[in-house]
# Entry
Amino acid sequence: MKPRQQRMLAVGLAVLGIAIAAGLTLRAFEDNMMFFVEISDVVAGKHPSERNFRIGGLVVGGSVHREEGSLDMSFEVTDTACTVPVIYSGVLPDLFREGQGVVAHGRMGDNGVFVADKILAKHDENYMAPEVAESLSKHQQDIQAAVARGTEGCNPDDS
Amino acid sequence: MIPEIGQFAMILALALAAIQTAVPIVGAHRDDAAMMGVARSAATGQFVFVAIAFGCLTYAFLTDDFSVLYVANHSQLSLPTLYKVSAVWGAHEGSLLMWVLILAGWTLAVARFSSGVPDAFAARVIGVLGFLSIGFLAFMILTSNPFERLVPAAADGADLNPLLQDPGLAIHPPLLYIGYVGFSVAFAFAIAAMLSGDLDRTWAKWTRPWTTLAWLFLTLGIALGSWWAYYELGWGGWWFWDAVENASFMPWLIGTALMHSLAVTEKRGLFKSWTLLLAITAFSLSLLGTFLVRSGILVSVHAFATDPERGYFILAFLGIVVVGALLLYAWRAPSLDSDVGFALLSRETFLLLNNVLLVIATAIVLYGTLSPLIYQMMDWGKISIGEPWFNFAFLIPTVPLVILLGMGMHAAWRTQNTGTWLDVLKLPAIIGVVLGIVVPLFVYGRMSVMLAVGCIAAFWIVVSSLVPIIRSLRREKGAAGITRSALGMSVAHVGMGLFVLGVTVVSAFGVESDRALSPGASTEVAGFEFEMRGLNNVTGPNFTAIEAEVEIRKDGEYVGTVRPQKRQYLVQKSPMTEAGIRAGLDKDLFVALGDQLGNNAWSVRIQYKPLIRFIWLGCLIMALGGLIAISDRRYRVNVRETAKRKDPKAQEAAA
Amino acid sequence: MNRFILPLVIVIGLIVFLVMGLQHGDPRALPSPFIGKPAPEFELPTLKNPEVVIGTDNFAGKYTLVNVWATWCVMCQAEHGFLMDLAASKSIPIYGLNWRDSRPDAIRWLGRLGDPYIASAFDPDNRVGMDWGVYGAPETFLLDPEGTVVYKHLGPLDPAIWEREFLSRMQEASP
# Structure
């Protein structure tokens, strides 16, 4: 083979390899992609059932409970319209606080409880994950509407 | 008064940058020596004024001048002096000033150490760098003025974000920016070469040491950032595939490709247009990184305060620079096709593969970084990409990359005899496979496919890279058995091997566990016993803390004591975790305090991280390799020779 | 097509994509959910006198500014001078919402810099802040005479913003 042909062969093989790799990568991408689901949608059952996803909102004041001396804990997260109970076992981030923004990774348990395997809180006082902020502002609207109608609270089917 | 001087200096620097751009480039075009001569003095002047501005801001921090808004926002009376200095670049405005200072510094260095380069060429390079300065100075003056006043002055500042109050983070941004911005030099050389149309291989030779220098700083900067994230973010990971990390990693990957392709262009006159494209891309990715970090377009824990106006400005500037460069490229590059042949088995082929794989790796990182944005814009939902995807996808190009690395080093230019090549490779291959299987199996007692691949690749690279060093030591004692250039390459590749080993072992055998501990109690993780001896209150300059004393034992024998802290910073009222780490070359033992669980118990995160130090040690050795390569006398001797001959063509003929 | 033009095409595509991303992701471009809605009701003790309670009722009848501030917030201080000028011009009543702060610090702060507020509601634990969807300080709400939120501004105020975003809205409604 002439050098030029050899090079073409090498390039051809490389392209084949890349195609296979790209296929594998895209598959893995699907598996590792994590959706952010708003609390109201979680309450309405509009969330992935077989895979992990993220939720975000504010930690409800007074809802944080832990068993004395144990790592197991529970709290509630709200987007100000609806609320989801969360259980978690492990170390919490520094800025996890009642009334503050939080993002949790995990999946839905059978009993309507979100089982978190990772908790993230914001990194500094002035920062809130944009998706949480957006979700809150969106549902704040619902609260207003609900107040106007005289039925306050969670109306997941509306959204 | 001082802040106004700083502001005035910035404006003067902008004016000088404009002169530095226009006059030399026009001069080079007209072949007017006087106009070209302006380049060096304008570059010097620009540097001096940017340095004055930087000095004024530093002075404002050191004197607690809270009438400057930026100082009031990011400093505080009781902040330790070291952090008052590092706070200068702790947020958007100041870090931008540092960016400009570093760009001016690189320009000055080019102006000083380019006496061997023809005047017209140097004038163009400095002119292009001046254009970049214009963009960033204007950006700062128009949207991000660090000297903005606060009236009336604050009594005390809001303090520096506690996460940034750390010696590692004080020097991480400067190193990172020196690397990041350093690719502007390779970019300017490429543009200058295209402007002049003089695209023989000499420009590659002039660019090489500058590219390597920028690359080695970027390597150190990234490594330092990873180390900081490991101990300061508190939870023991060393790389998170965070958008901001990726923003610095992509230029590194392309910069690495550029270094290798420059070698081919310089030695063989091949890949010319490709090398030009990489030089443009490396710096374009630096600009893209700046945009991603400062526009708030992506969600990241590191991102600066968001401001869309800034985003539009950087994007517009990025557009002008990159589109301009690529237009020039589309015009000039077609004339560059040279068809010098090389055999399939030759160093050229391996370096071509190196480049292809590095570009693929970059594309993967870019796609992963931008995909949340793509999904959001398409209204497909809000997603985040988990680390597992990056870890997996990144391995696809990098596993072949590291295996080919060990082979390519021993292939000759042009063509390589297969028999002698295999002879050289035999020994490293055998040693690599044996060590790669024995070490995980007998030292750590477990084996898997990925583990074997990683360890074999690591030992293979290390041994294979040591071969040229060992040979030269054996054959000729002392003297010039191996060029600095080749030695640098070998050393850098040894570093790469150690890095791969560290990553493989820590990923496979690292243990992480959350436990509850109270004083007097103990728990076992990875065969080590962790006993909490007590809790104390500690007071720092601007924080109070609870400190745990944790004693570590193995089989009843004392290993060490760590003191993790939970700090409460007084001004920002924010808690911070300071991990307690017992560091060692073979393993780190890591204890971080979580929160109080009641009953005097605390949640703690305990980690066993074998060989994690190899990750940063490997990077350090890579950077050392770069340093050795730059010190090759070839670069210096040639500079002097060309200076004497004043004719690049003659010098090329001699080479 | 000339293969040397390909990088240019890719880059232009990427830039167009990023411009769209900036427009899409611009947090300020998001319409605030409050605009056109009645301000959430609340009652809080005032900062200077815990015995006195103020609330949404105090705002009725004319255009009112509600400014969220705190002593730990440097940008609040940056806008304070403007608020003082605005208060002196008597063009609009300004109420404060002292947010996640301590009472003695806040009173001292007003003592030092001047007090542009008719009164400040004291909200140390973010109860009202949460109802009002406060993201951070400073933040300023413009309420019309019916108590409806007309505009909400994130970040410090200055004369230009005041004229462009606030005055224009007040004039629009009452020609």
About this structure: The domain at 39-173 of chain C is CATH 3.40.30.10 (Glutaredoxin). Chain C has one domain: 39-173. The first strand of chain C starts at residue 43 and ends at 45. The CA atoms of residues 71 and 109 of chain C lie 7 Å apart.
